[in-house]
Amino acid sequence: MFRSQLLPSMAVLLLSLSPSLVLASTKQDYIDHTLNASDVLNQRWYSQDDGLWQDLWWNSGAIMATIGDVALSNNDFKQTAIDIYSNSLTAAKAANGNTWLNDFYDDEGWWAMGWIKAYDVTQDTKYLDAANEIFNDLLTGNDATCGGHWWSKEKKDNTAIGNELYLAVAASLANRMDDGTSYQKYAQSQVDWFLNAGFLNENNTISDGLNVTDNCERIGAVYSYNQGVILGALVEMNELTGNSSYLDIACEIAHAAIEQLATPNNGILTDVGYPKGPDPTGAQFKGVFARNLMYLQKARPDDDFVRFLQNNADSIWKNNRQADGQIGAFWQGPLQNVSAAAHSSALDCLLAAAAVSS
Ligand SMILES: *[C@@H]1O[C@H](CO)[C@@H](O)[C@H](O)[C@H]1NC(C)=O
Ligand SMILES: *[C@@H]1O[C@H](CO)[C@@H](O)[C@H](O)[C@H]1NC(C)=O
Ligand SMILES: *[C@@H]1O[C@H](CO)[C@@H](O)[C@H](O)[C@H]1NC(C)=O
Ligand SMILES: *[C@@H]1O[C@H](CO)[C@@H](O)[C@H](O)[C@H]1NC(C)=O
Ligand SMILES: *[C@@H]1O[C@H](CO)[C@@H](O)[C@H](O)[C@H]1NC(C)=O
């Protein structure tokens, strides 16, 4: 670029940066943004017929938790969430052959977490029953070669996400069932195994898997959602046992993830697929981290987490949203790859920013 072209654009940049302190978003802005994004999500993608968003399966399980968190912090949205839960409990199950189960334990885990959130919002035990029905099937995957939990019913892969979701479901049920003893036993043995299995790497982040044919060596990239589900699971473990070491570990992972997945990109959370683009459903990952960081922030407040969430929410709103409110896959922009997965993922971050702002 020629110097003469660079100077004017830099001047514009400086002008647009300097008033931003004055224009910083308020808590009310983040709440307004959250509610707009929630309404757009449901109007654009939710189907009454199959009870899913954009016909996506595991993503819709994750979105069940997202809308529950929106409802828990915004009373005006509560009835909308209740209506969706009530419809999807029948319609989504029917769309999947009248079962919550499929060949992927992680898919089942997302749905179990979604129904646990529905229970938190409604206090209706039929949702806890759905989560428990799923958990009973998860127990059939509890015999992986390296220990821990299989990813799919083929029983060939040992992944961080499958293991984290299994832990999160077991610990969450232990905290909510009348008699949580057996769930606690499963959660405890899973967390003891997981934290020492090798997923947690030398950079304090979680790698994607273990190689079951090569001595359980860690393999794969560092994805944002693997740094996310574990945070919520460890928050549940702290609540379950009163052992605050779980929060210490969660804080280390959260700081490392922010440092390594966001800091090199001006503080904006970025998955390893960028800039080639994550697959459309992988756009869900970043929101999973943001939402679980919100749970950690409630249990163990940290200004770094607040700044991270606000910064990312601001960027989503400014750089990654089209005029009608639909949101794309890259939180730093430019706007592209709009989908229910990308949009709901961004919604997780908008909500988290609203929840942690004062
Ligand atoms: C840890 O970080 C270093 C430096 O960025 C990198 O080379 C290495 O691959 C990372 N380790 C893992 C397991 O991701
Ligand atoms: C697992 O280890 C085996 C043997 O070293 C290797 O052939 C294979 O590529 C590894 N799998 C992955 C997914 O890295
Ligand atoms: C608390 O959890 C940590 C992490 O798993 C463990 O090392 C420690 O032994 C636990 N403390 C107690 C009192 O159980
Ligand atoms: C969300 O906001 C956009 C403008 O930013 C507006 O066009 C759209 O109608 C709003 N949608 C809803 C459902 O409120
Ligand atoms: C994402 O958007 C880019 C730019 O429009 C496009 O080239 C690419 O095919 C899209 N990716 C997916 C998975 O839709």
TrEMBL record:
Please state the span of the N-terminal signal peptide per the UniProt entry. 1-24
Carries keyword Signal? yes
Q: Which Pfam families match?
A: Glyco_hydro_76
The UniProt keywords, alphabetically, are: Signal
InterPro entries documented for this protein: 6-hairpin_glycosidase_sf (IPR008928), Glyco_hydro_76 (IPR005198), MUG_Protein (IPR053169)
Q: Does the keyword Cell membrane apply?
A: no
Which PANTHER family does UniProt cross-reference here?
Answer: ENDO MANNANASE, GH76 FAMILY (EUROFUNG) (PTHR47791:SF1), MEIOTICALLY UP-REGULATED GENE 191 PROTEIN (PTHR47791)
Q: What is this protein called?
A: Glycoside hydrolase family 76 protein
